[in-house]
Amino acid sequence: MNNEQNFSYEEPIDAISLLREQTQRLIEQMHEECESEKDIYRKYLVSGYSMLSKPQQSIDYLLHPILPRTGVAALVGTSDSGKSTLLRGLAMAVASGAKSYLSFPLNIYRRRAIYVATEDDESAISALMFKQIAELGTSSEEYSTLDFIFQTDNLLHTLDATLTERPADLVVIDAFADLYTGPMNENNRVRTFLNSFSQLAQKHSTLFLFLHHTGKRTETFAPSKHNAIGSQGFEAKMRLVMELRPDIEQHDIRHLCIVKGNYLPQQYKHDSFVLRFTEGLNFVDTGERVPFEMLRERTPEKEDERLEQMRAMRAQGMSFRQIAEAVGFKDGSTVLRKLRNNM
C-alpha cells in the first residue's frame, strides 16, 4: 500500500502533455501550409500594370523581323527541298555569332544552338557541315556551341536539363513526325504534344523551331499554312510557319514563304523570299521576291494560255517589264526567257 501511495504519475502526465503540444503544433503547421497552397496560384498571375511598367514595347526577335526569340515555330516543305540544310545553317549562324542569316539581322544573346536530329546520324551531318564551312570560309572551332542530340529517348528531360545548365538561343527539332507518334489528325493530341515544348520554350526563353513535311501534291497549290501534313492543331500552336518550296523551273532556287506570322505585317506574307541553294549546301538571299500565286505548278493548258497572252501583249508593243507586271512575274527577264524558250 505504501509503495502504491508513493508512486508518482507526474512523469507520464508530462509526456502526454508534450505529445499533445507537438501534435497541435504539427496540425497548425499543416494548416499554414495548406493555406499557402491555396494561394500558390498567385505566383502564376501577372498584372497588366506590371507588364506595361516594363521598358520593352516591341516584340523581341531572334531573326528580325521573322523568328521570335521565344516560343514554337515551324518550317514545312516537300522532301529534298533543303529544309534540314536551311535550319542547320541557321543553327550554325547562331552558334558562330553571325550578325545575320539570309540577309535578316540575328539578335543572339547566348550564342548557343541545339539541333535534334532524327533523320541523319553523326557521320552524315559531320560530312555536310564540313562542306558548308568550306564554302563559308569559317573554322570548326566557331561551332563549339552547336550541340546535336541524336538519341531522343526522354527528350524533354534531356532538353530541360541541358538548357538549365547552359541556355540556348535556338532549339531545332528535325523532324516533328519522328517524335510525335500519335494520329496526325487529332488536334487535341497534337496540341498537347507541342504544348510540352512550348512550356520548355517559355521556361528557358528559347525558340523551338520544328521541321515538318507538306502533304502530297501540295505543290499544285499556292504556299499555305494548310499544306502541312496533319491537323490544324499543328499550325495553330505555332507562332510562325514558313514553307520552303523549290522553284518550278530553276533547280538551284528555293522560295521561303512565310505563311503564318502572328506579329508580322502583311507585306511579309504574300511574296516569297527567293534563295539560291549553293553547291556548298548553303542558302543565299537573292534579294528577289515572288508572289505566292506564281509558285503553284500549272497545267500545260494553263501555261500555253499564258504564253499566248504574253505573245499578244508583246505584239501590242508592251515592254517585258509591263508584261511581267500583268501576268504576275517578278521582272521582265522571266518573260524574255519564257518567250525565247517557247519560240
Walkthrough of the structure:
This protein is α/β, with parallel strands linked by helices and 343 residues long. The chain has 2 domains: 61-295, P-loop containing nucleotide triphosphate hydrolases (Rossmann fold, 3-Layer(aba) Sandwich), CATH 3.40.50.300; 300-341. The protein is 41% helix and 20% strand. The strands form 3 sheets. The protein has a 9-stranded mixed β-sheet with strand order 7-6-8-9-3-10-11-12-13. A two-stranded antiparallel sheet has the order 1-2. Strands 4-5 form a two-stranded antiparallel sheet. The N and C termini lie far apart (134 Å). The relative contact order is 0.11. Mean pLDDT is 86; it is low at 1-11.
